[in-house]
Specification:
By secondary structure, the chain is of the alpha+beta class. It is built from three helices and five strands; from the N terminus they run ααβαββββ. The protein has one domain (2-130). The protein has helices spanning 2-47, 50-60, 76-81, and strands at 66-69, 92-98, 102-108, 114-119, 123-124.
Length: 136
């Protein structure tokens, strides 16, 4: 009789631990999928800037520098190259010139994460500071 009283709470606790563990796994998958989806959409928006930048370069012999941020009403990049993202998001897009033949676009979400790509190669930016010790 005493054993059955002890087994029931243990079984209930074990079941609770299993359910909690499954919930944690499902939530982690959800967070990872949400992040991957944001990255894919953001890269697509960033890539859509390339033809506008190329046209600007043909006309002015350089790439345009500017910002596109709907939240702050900073549309300097849109005014320069006539680029308007087809996706309405809350990202801040900043275009900077790298040398004479390339430019980089950095997209920063309101939540904090950011993505950076070099164009026209469409390659990720390389930041040496990520690999150096923090004291340097």
């Amino acid at each position: 009789m005493k054993r059955s009283r002890l087994i029931q709470p243990l079984a209930i606790c074990s079941l609770g631990v299993v359910i909690f563990g499954l919930f944690v796994l499902v939530y982690q998958d959800y967070v990872e999928a949400k992040s991957a989806s944001w990255q894919q959409v953001t890269f697509r928006v960033m890539d859509s800037m390339l033809p506008f930048q190329e046209r600007y370069r043909e006309e002015h012999e350089r790439y345009a520098v500017g910002t596109f941020d709907r939240a702050q009403n900073d549309l300097s990049l849109a005014k320069l190259i006539d680029w308007h993202p087809s996706v309405t998001d809350s990202n801040r897009y900043v275009a900077d010139v790298i040398g004479t033949n390339a430019f980089k676009v950095t997209a920063t979400s309101r939540d904090g994460p950011s993505l950076c790509r070099l164009y026209p190669a469409k390659q990720p930016c390389f930041d040496l500071r990520e690999y150096l010790p923090s004291g340097l």
